[in-house]
């Protein structure tokens, strides 16, 4: 395979497919044996690192660490083959997720040193990274809320190492032409962002969609504040890009922990919904001196805490901890399982151009765990082979642990329906019911019933949804509760139960407000007197930057509650969801005066 690597000096060198050579492989084997020796009492010292798809080589060099950056092409790449082309084995390998060039390393367990994976978009790629993380000694995540799931997936040594900014000159606010700036893609698939931009147009926001590098920095250099929207409640790079220019971030109060990056009210402003966002924008317009002071503070915070060298220091500390105390990454059969599930997840999502036969081969070589069994069933359905599916389903149902597993049972049953074998589907359902000891089982008359049943079973098994994936119910067998309900809705568009349950599942996932607005709107049309549902729809609208529809839905819900003599209940529910009283104030402007908030004696 052809690839380029550059040293910390920035000079590029060329490499290609490395032939088997005795000396490099002997060096790797010797270094591997040294790694496996008991660790010394003192902390390990990292002197040189191998970076894969990283721009931090200069930052490491500034710390006195020799750094070589490799840039392999997209696809599946053997780590030892990459390292064999280096002059000497590194003290650590750091694989940084590349958002535009998907690379999966194999043979990671053969590395002669600790290995780290830096997940850059785990909020959208956790569905495959939870398996991939098991191959490494340690994992870093740009998202604080993803550190725990990655640890639970197989490796407890994780760290929150997020995005970084750059050094930029500060432009006084008097010399900036625009009040607001936002650089980001707005597409029909990002309805919430489109509503965000549409709402802020009245405040003067003109989004920029195609700016990168110096052009992007110039946009924020020329604006005083950056309202920030997040795709899935994540810490995003825009936060640091704006702050680097001293363009004050006004960002969502998501995920929990984001306020540790920039001090609220001093280095950034935060909001929960469109009402609070509008309040913050009005404050900045009325207090230009305070806005500039906060912009300068955000600019200083980047220089003090959020530069590439700070992230390199954090990665280095994680690497040294891994070197001083060798961890427990996957080995042997566990390695085959983790890698096979990683590739399967990427293949199923259409993120890696691999063929079904190759995925089948990888999975067949892995230990037959429930996750592998479910993946094999998916792959059999993808190959369209009823014979292969029937053989595999029979083997799974013969194992007590597999037929009692909700994930395996769901895929076995739903794949049967997909392949036109309803009898096999019913056998999988009956086997699951029998294995789980249910005294009374619901009758499944058709695929819709099976989808609704297994949506509940998968939700109980904490397989709610897979953010970042796209699901086509006409092509794929459902793999989680949300996908079951999407497929059920396609079969019976008039059914309301899938909408209700899907809306409840999506409540757990930030960034899904646009979908929830659609689901809750449909439910409210059929239950116009349900003020509780109306209030939930109002809050979803406000979280999706739909101010007027949100206030209007809240008004209708309040009127329904009053007509039913439940004003006090409505007021309590509203106070819990609107603790600062912004929505209550908006209702008061429309003539709805609610009982005063109760206070503890």
From TrEMBL:
<feature type="compositionally biased region" description="Basic residues">
    <location>
        <begin position="17"/>
        <end position="35"/>
    </location>
</feature>
<feature type="region of interest" description="Disordered">
    <location>
        <begin position="1"/>
        <end position="40"/>
    </location>
</feature>
<dbReference type="Pfam" id="PF13524">
    <property type="entry name" value="Glyco_trans_1_2"/>
</dbReference>
<keyword id="KW-0808">Transferase</keyword>
<protein>
    <submittedName>
        <fullName>Glycosyltransferase family 1 protein</fullName>
    </submittedName>
</protein>
<dbReference type="GO" id="GO:0016740">
    <property type="term" value="F:transferase activity"/>
</dbReference>
<feature type="domain" description="Spore protein YkvP/CgeB glycosyl transferase-like">
    <location>
        <begin position="213"/>
        <end position="317"/>
    </location>
</feature>
<dbReference type="InterPro" id="IPR055259">
    <property type="entry name" value="YkvP/CgeB_Glyco_trans-like"/>
</dbReference>
């Amino acid at each position: 395979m052809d690839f380029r690597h550059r040293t910390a000096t920035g000079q590029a060198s060329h490499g290609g497919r490395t032939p088997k050579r005795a000396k490099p492989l002997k060096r790797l084997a010797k270094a591997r044996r040294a790694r496996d020796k008991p660790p010394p009492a003192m902390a390990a010292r990292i002197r040189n690192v191998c970076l894969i798809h990283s721009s931090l080589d200069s930052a490491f060099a500034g710390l006195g660490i020799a750094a070589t950056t490799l840039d392999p092409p997209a696809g599946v790449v053997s780590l030892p083959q990459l390292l064999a082309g280096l002059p000497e084995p590194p003290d650590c390998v750091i694989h940084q997720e590349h958002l535009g060039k998907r690379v999966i390393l194999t043979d990671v367990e053969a590395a002669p040193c600790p290995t780290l994976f830096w997940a850059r978009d785990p909020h959208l790629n956790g569905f495959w990274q939870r398996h991939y993380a098991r191959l490494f000694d340690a994992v870093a995540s740009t998202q604080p809320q993803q550190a725990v799931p990655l640890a639970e997936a197989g490796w407890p040594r994780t760290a929150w190492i997020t995005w970084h900014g750059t050094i930029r000159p500060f432009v006084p606010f008097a010399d900036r032409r625009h009040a607001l700036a936002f650089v980001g893609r707005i597409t029909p698939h990002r309805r919430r962002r489109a509503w965000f931009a549409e709402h802020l147009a009245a405040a003067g926001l003109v989004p920029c969609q195609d700016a990168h590098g110096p052009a992007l920095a110039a946009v924020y250099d020329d604006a005083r504040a950056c309202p920030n929207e997040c795709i899935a409640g994540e810490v995003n790079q825009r936060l640091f890009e704006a702050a680097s220019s001293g363009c004050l971030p006004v960002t969502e109060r998501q995920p929990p922990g984001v306020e540790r990056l920039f001090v609220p009210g001093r280095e950034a402003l935060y909001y929960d919904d469109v009402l609070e966002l509008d309040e913050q924008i009005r404050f900045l317009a009325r207090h230009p001196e305070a806005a500039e002071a906060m912009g300068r503070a955000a600019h200083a915070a980047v220089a003090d805490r959020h530069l590439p060298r700070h992230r390199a220091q954090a990665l280095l500390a994680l690497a040294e901890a891994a070197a001083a105390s060798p961890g427990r990454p996957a080995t042997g059969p566990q390695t085959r399982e983790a890698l096979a599930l990683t590739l399967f997840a990427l293949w199923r999502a259409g993120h890696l151009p691999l063929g079904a036969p190759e995925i089948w081969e990888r999975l067949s070589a892995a230990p037959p765990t429930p996750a592998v069994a479910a993946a094999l069933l998916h792959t059999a359905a993808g190959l369209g082979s009823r014979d292969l599916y029937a053989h595999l389903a029979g083997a799974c149902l013969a194992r007590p642990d597999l037929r009692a597993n909700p994930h395996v049972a769901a895929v076995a049953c739903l794949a049967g329906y997909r392949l036109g074998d309803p009898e096999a589907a019913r056998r999988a359902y009956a086997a699951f019911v029998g294995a789980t000891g249910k005294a009374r089982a619901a009758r499944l008359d058709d695929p819709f019933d099976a989808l609704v049943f297994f949506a509940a079973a998968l939700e109980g098994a904490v397989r709610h949804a897979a953010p970042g994936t796209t699901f086509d119910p006409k092509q794929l067998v459902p793999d989680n509760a949300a996908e079951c309900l999407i497929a059920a809705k396609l079969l019976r568009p008039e059914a309301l139960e899938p909408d209700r349950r899907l809306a409840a599942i999506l409540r757990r996932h930030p960034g899904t407000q646009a979908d929830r607005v659609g689901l809750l709107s449909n439910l409210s049309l059929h239950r116009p007197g349900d003020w509780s549902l109306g209030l939930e729809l109002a809050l979803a609208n406000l979280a999706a930057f739909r101010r007027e529809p949100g206030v209007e839905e809240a008004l209708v819900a309040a009127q329904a509650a009053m007509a039913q003599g439940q004003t006090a209940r409505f007021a309590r529910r509203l106070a819990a969801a609107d603790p600062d009283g912004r929505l209550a104030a908006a209702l008061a402007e429309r003539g709805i005066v609610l009982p005063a908030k109760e206070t503890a004696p």
